[in-house]
Design brief:
The protein has 120 residues and is mostly helical. It has 4 helices and no strands. The two termini are 18 Å apart.
């Protein structure tokens, strides 16, 4: 097989590649990549509210949930990805090193790693 289980990484995809090109991703740290869409989308919401003349409603309690999602939840997803990604890679490597997976099932593990890498 062309992919070995040691090469497992949950990071990837078009957004991750764009973040690398823009310099927002360094190694497995994707926090800045998460801040960019969160803050960018929040600025668009504020700009549209200003253009629409709804500035008095921008910081009402009913709208604060939307602000929290854009400014906190989206970056937190990326922060968790930065923390979990290397640990998942280490887990797969440790599973192979400690021979938790029997040699007969190693091909199945390699197939699953290849499938996960393709999806990422």
């Amino acid at each position: 097989m062309s992919h070995r289980a040691e090469s497992f990484s949950p990071l990837g995809g078009p957004l991750h590649q764009l973040g690398r090109r823009l310099g927002l991703v360094r190694g497995t740290n994707t926090v800045r990549l998460g801040l960019a869409p969160g803050v960018g989308l929040w600025l668009i919401v504020v700009a549209l509210a200003l253009l629409g003349g709804n500035t008095d409603q921008i910081f009402q309690l009913s709208v604060i949930g939307g602000h929290a999602r854009l400014l906190m939840a989206i970056p937190l997803f990326f922060m968790c990805e930065s923390w979990v990604g290397p640990r998942m890679t280490a887990l797969v490597t440790t599973i192979l090193a400690t021979r938790v997976v029997p040699p007969a099932a190693a091909d199945a593990l390699n197939f699953e790693v290849m499938r996960a890498n393709r999806r990422a």
